[in-house]
Design a protein that fits this description.
It is a single chain. The strands form 4 sheets. Strands 8, 9, 10, 11, 12, 13, 14 and 21 form an 8-stranded antiparallel β-sheet that branches. Strands 1, 2, 3, 17 and 18 form a 5-stranded antiparallel β-sheet that branches. This protein is mainly β and about 400 residues long. A hairpin with a 6-residue loop joins β1 and β2. About 5% of the residues are buried.
């Protein structure tokens, strides 16, 4: 409203300064209305009593009035709570009692030896060089015979073959017609060879002198005996409790409200119209003032609240009382390195006699004796004929 009033006053000045001085062509009332409207005025009246009232409203700034009022919000936690102990640990009733045995000091170790059971072993072994003797033993002889042929001799002599009677069967002497032939005789002499085979084997008798090695092994073991002192300890364990105080800081919001007043100045200026129907010199302005409540000024700030302190307890460290009395020591034995005590002795043993048999070439003897000759004959005809007991002269010329 203040800005619009200043604009209206400025516009009024311009209208007054720039009002045309020429002849008025429009109707007088219309020109006056237009001039009044141009300055946001209110046109009123009739005839020569027509006026234009321009109202200017100026609103002043809000001015604080009275004493500001402050309100606070509810307290709310601020930051982490801080807990502090307010007492020393206090032992609680019904302690826990336990008893245990434990080592007391260092163990004492004593070294001894334990002799084990001797182990006797016997081992036969050769002694000296072996002596060998060879003997040839004949077996049962066997005989085989074979026939060997000599040089064949051949002899030939005339003969007849295929003889047949040619005269009457009633004749006192038969006349035969025969084919002349050559009789070949082959004679092969033979020799009977007898082979007598006598198998032989060589029997070798080997005598190996022997002795018995007697070994006596006795194990000897180190024994470490440890004596560990012990004690029996009774432990009484108390649970403890420590009183605590926890402080929780708080904060709240302070809201300050400052009331204000606002003054409004209203100025009414009435203008008349001159002969050119423009606004004439204004009359005496009429000013009125009114006061109203302005917008309150509200400010906020965070301020500390009332700390909240709570008490409680927390578990403390366990506290123990220990009472120890001697207990029976623990005796343990452990075997260490085992060594062998070895003793040996020798005694004669039965010699080892080994008989081996080896076949050798047999003894072969051959004897010869004449055998029966092999005789073979072969008859071959000559293609000629002859007669036996010829009866005629012609037959006698071809006598066989």
């Amino acid at each position: 409203m203040r800005f619009s009033s200043l604009v209206a006053a400025t516009t009024l000045g311009l209208v007054v300064a720039l009002a045309p001085a020429g002849p008025v062509l429009a109707a007088p009332e219309d020109d006056r209305r237009a001039a009044c409207t141009a300055v946001n005025g209110e046109f009123s009246g009739k005839g020569n009593n027509q006026t234009c009232t321009v109202t200017t409203v100026v609103v002043g700034p809000d001015v604080p009035s009275g004493t500001p009022t402050t309100t606070f919000s509810e307290d709310r936690p601020a930051g982490d709570p801080v807990t502090v102990d307010t007492s020393q640990p206090v032992r609680q009733p019904s302690p826990e009692v336990s008893t245990e045995e434990r080592d007391a000091g260092d163990a004492t170790v004593v070294r001894t030896e334990r002799v084990g059971t001797p182990v006797v072993t016997e081992e036969e072994r050769d002694t000296g060089e072996a002596a060998s003797e060879d003997v040839v033993v004949p077996g049962t002889p066997t005989s085989t015979t074979r026939t060997e042929r000599g040089t064949t001799t051949t002899t030939q002599q005339p003969t007849t073959t295929n003889c047949r009677r040619v005269n009457d069967d009633r004749s006192a002497k038969p006349v035969e017609k025969c084919d002349r032939a050559v009789l070949t005789t082959r004679t092969t002499p033979t020799t009977v060879v007898t082979t007598t085979t006598t198998p032989q084997e060589r029997v070798t008798t080997t005598t190996q002198p022997r002795e018995t090695l007697v070994t006596t092994t006795t194990p000897v073991t180190e024994v470490f005996t440890s004596t560990q002192p012990r004690e029996s300890c009774t432990t009484t364990t108390f649970q403890t409790v420590i009183a605590t105080a926890t402080t929780q800081q708080t904060e709240r919001t302070a809201t300050a409200t400052q009331q204000t007043t606002r003054t409004t100045t209203t100025t009414k200026t009435t203008f008349t119209f001159d002969k050119s129907n423009g606004l004439a010199q204004p009359g005496t302005p009429v000013t009125t003032m009114s006061t109203t409540a302005g917008d309150p000024v509200i400010t906020t700030a965070e301020v500390p609240g009332t700390p909240v302190v709570t008490t409680g307890t927390r578990p403390g460290e366990e506290e123990s009382d220990v009472v120890c009395t001697p207990a029976a020591p623990v005796i343990t034995s452990a075997d260490g390195e085992t060594t062998q005590d070895v003793q040996t002795a020798t005694v004669p043993a039965e010699p080892t006699v080994t008989v081996t048999r080896e076949e050798i070439d047999p003894l072969v003897v051959e004897t010869e004796a004449p055998g029966a000759p092999v005789v073979t004959t072969d008859t071959r005809t000559t293609g000629q004929t002859c007669y036996k007991n010829p009866a005629t002269a012609e037959q006698r010329r071809n006598r066989c």
